[in-house]
Every structure is written in C-alpha cells, then in structure tokens.
Amino acid sequence: MTEKIREYKMNGSLIIGVDAGYGNFKTARRVFPTAVSVSDKAPVFARDFIEWNGRYYIIGEGHKGFVTDKVTDDDNYVLTMAAVVKELEARGYTDRRNAVRIHLAVGLPLKWVQAQRDTFRDYMMKERIVKVGYKDRTYEMEFTGCTVMPQCYSAVAENLKDFKGMNLLVDIGNGTMNLMYLNNGRPMESKSWTEKLGVYQCEKAILNKVRDNTGTELMHEVIENFLRTGETDIAQPYAGLMVEAAKEYAVQIFQKLRDYEYNEQMMRLYVMGGGARIVEAFGEYDMDRVTFDHDIRANAKGYEYYCYMILKHQQRKKAM
C-alpha cells in the first residue's frame, strides 16, 4: 500500500522539508546520496543530474566529506535544489507557466541550531527565484521563506502525546548523533546534545578493523550494504570482522548514552536515523523498552509539519 503523505501550504506557499544529511539527502518522498560533481557539458551516461546556472550537477557521484558548517561551499545549496525538484516531481508539479512558491523547511543538529540558524537561512535564501532543469523539464521556483529547525525533535513533533513518562530520543545520522530527553512529551532543552558519533564512525571502524587484520581494503559499497541490512555475502574472515566492528560501535553508542544518564530501567529509548538498524542488529538492550524507527525520511516529514505549525502560530500572533 502506498504511504499517504500530507502536503502543507501556508500563505500560498508549498512547504517542502529537506533533511541535508551527511550520508543522504531526504525529502518526504525522496532519498538520494549526499554527493555531487559538476560539469560544463551534459553528462553522457549519468541519468540523475540537474542543470542550474548553465552547469550540470551529477547527483550521487563523488563523495561529500563531513563538515560541521554546511555553508562553506555551494554543494549543500545545489543538493537542496536537487531535493526540491525531485520532491516537486514526486508530487506531480509539472506546470511550466507559473513559478512554484516554496517555503523551505530545513534542519540542523540539535546543539548547532542556535549558532548556525541565521547563516544557514541566509545561505538557503541567497536566490529568491531559481530555475532548475531536471528530466527534460524546467522547474521555476520562488522561495518565499526558510525555517531552520532542530533535527531529532522535529521527527517526533507531531506525535509528542505518545511519549509517556521519561523518554530518551536518539537520532543517529551519518555524521552526528543527536540526543534529547522528553518528559511526558515535553522536550528538555537543557538535556539535549549533539555528538560526532554517526554511522560514518562505524564505517571507518569496519574499514580499519578489516585492513588491520587482513591488509585488505573493503569497498565502500560492501560496507554500506552491510550497514543497511545487517547482513553480508562475503567470505570469512572479512564477514566476522565486520560484525565484530559493528558490535563494538553499538557498545560505544550505549556507553555514550549512559554518559548522558541513560538508564533502561528508568526510561524508554527511541532510536531513529540511519544508525537505528545497526543498534537494533548488533546492540544489547531490553527489546520491551526500546523502539526503533527506521523511516530515514522522518526528519524531512517532521520539518514540514513543525514548520507549518510555526508559521500558523506566527500568523495568529499577527492577527491579534
């Protein structure tokens, strides 16, 4: 059955959530790798590319390294524009006569929002009218605003009433791990943190363990498939070493949670993001007290809902 995803609009603008992850970019309906390469000529073999400002940007090729500040180059901007047109295509927006009015809903790690919100918003809003070519169609977009929200919390903002008692939210992305306590659905701002302990750290640990023990360099794709499914079809000792490294990473995750006062007998644990599958497959925990959310688009969907509620509240205040 096809998932039904709501569409939010405010003041004539379509709200589109974009989760700019270090491993993947996500929208409510689309996911693609955080990688881009540029060419002055249309690519011959690549199918997934956009045309912007007279240049061609191939999506999913190359590798975007981890950076704490996403406004240091044009890559995140280009990938965000790609995410928006992919989402527009998924929603069936094909009208070439009028520009689509869009309010961007984006996010940053929990503890980086306050310091980086303004510069990230300015970065996203540097062009009000943008034309992007994608799949033989030109999308003209008018960006009317941009709201920057916290990762992790946004993913569950619509369902806070379901979190009874004390809960620890953990969002394990590719680059960072965000943690936040909820007390009967109310966020505890003084008990929220961002750690550089994402899936990329697990990938490096696997790569190093196999290299150190066998001298063999594992392909990135082999590790990626293993982390996505928890299974691998390679020979020993490589398979065993990969599992060993993944278990050590899961131990590291739980140790970090305990550093922030996690006690499985006193609270419930809610794990989401790309790292949730690794923790579920290789961690040791009480299955009755841990929930895993494997929807890696949860933040992007949450950005749209949360942004809509923020704009609605602002509109009411103006009307008073």
UniProtKB/TrEMBL annotation:
Residues 169-280 form the Actin homologue MreB-like C-terminal domain. Gene3D superfamilies: 3.30.420.40. It holds the Pfam family ALP_N. SUPFAM superfamilies: Actin-like ATPase domain. Residues 17-153 form the Actin-like protein N-terminal domain. Coiled coil: none annotated. InterPro entries: ALP_N, ATPase_NBD, MreB-like_C. This is ParM/StbA family protein. The lineage of its organism: Bacteria, Bacillati, Bacillota, Clostridia, Lachnospirales.
